User: Fold this.
Amino acid sequence: MNARATSGRKTGGRWRLLSDPAVLNLMAATAAVGVAGAFVVPTTSLFLKEAVTATPLMVGLFFAARSIAEIGTDMVVGAVSDWLRSRRTILVLTALFNAAGALCYTFLRDYYLLLLSGMVCFGLGGACFGQLFAYTRELADARGVDAPFFNGFLRSVTSLAWVVGPPLAFWVIASWSFTALYAATAVLSLLAAALCGWGLPAPRGPDPGGPAGTGPDSAGSTAGEPAIGSGCADPAPPKSATEPPPGLLGMFSGLGPHTALVLGAVVLLLGANSMYQINLPLYVTEDLDMSPQFAGLLLGVSAALEIPLMVLAGVWADRVGKQRLMLAATVCATLFFALLPLADGRLSLLALQPLNAAWAAVALNIPVVMLQDSLPGRFGTASALYSSSFKAGMFLGGLVVGTVATWTGYRQVFWVCAGLTAVAGVLALLLRTVPEAPSSGPAQAPTPTLLTEPREGSNP
Assistant:
């Protein structure tokens, strides 16, 4: 079949998702988790400072300790989830733990009790983030839709949640209290648990009723027409459906230098993003003497701009190349953080948000697909690696914000962010010189895949 026909079918398959009940339920669950996160993440530093009277160093240590707990649970849950017949159980349990953590924030005001409850409840609940990535990839494969687009589409729902979440969160704090905010967060997490438990099917492979190339014949090992989105004559063979995942002890098997570079770049980029989210409310209120609501507005504007950029990044991933998008993201991030300390007015801060949205739209979407591509059949493990990199970034961000802000002030934190993203750019450059290691597993006849991309040198 010619490329034009394949491309046309792929595009049609993308937008038919909007009539799929499973996708609509997944969008609703993602939105609930996203708004809950947008309520908690940008307000926790202000909550600790005002309601718990914590010092900047205590705030940094709080985020660092919680991140350590979440990294461990992410890795364990990710490996275990690949053995389960359905991820719905994991999604429900993690959403319930998030609800429990929000309730602890609602009623507790002791720093050490909050630290302990946050490490346990949000540590376990944080795995919901990675498992949503894994389920999204499984559903994309089952529906025969290219994963970068579908992942970007669902991530844009999270961005939409961040459009309304931070401004609404700071408005609730100003109008009512932190108690009301975190009670609402608990309700949203319970809603997410209900949607995951009763609204999501268990993907069983390509949809037989989908477009040509996505039915049962295309999932087997016989020769035939490539599935939608294949677009490449050199697909990597997926993991055998009969071979069980390696489990917790073997979850790092199959990882090579290429994957390590991706993870390193993700840790640095998301570490800078975490530092920005922790530091911004404190910088705006303390150094610039502006209202907390303006900090929420900045986060909301950036998230609004991310929505179309995330979808476009998913569409362009195959054409431009994921590695090139990653490199462009590091350049935009470095420019943003280098200019941020120089902007001390409302208009200048708002004017920088398109640059912020441009790099975040790629960093929050493309790397997880790259990791999933490198570990076929182990989407839970790959998504847990990405999610753990996100939490490692939070750990790094918490330590840096706590120490730098204590000794030099909040403004200087952004210079450190610029340095981290510049190093991430070096790692992104090195990706083109390190070939991706072939996935581990027994040799078998190649089968058509639901997602590949044209190779550009060492492009995955």
In short: Residues 237 and 443 are 9 Å apart (CA to CA). The two ends are 24 Å apart (CA to CA). The domain at 19-202+232-433 is CATH 1.20.1250.20 (Growth Hormone; Chain: A;). The longest helix spans residues 257-287.
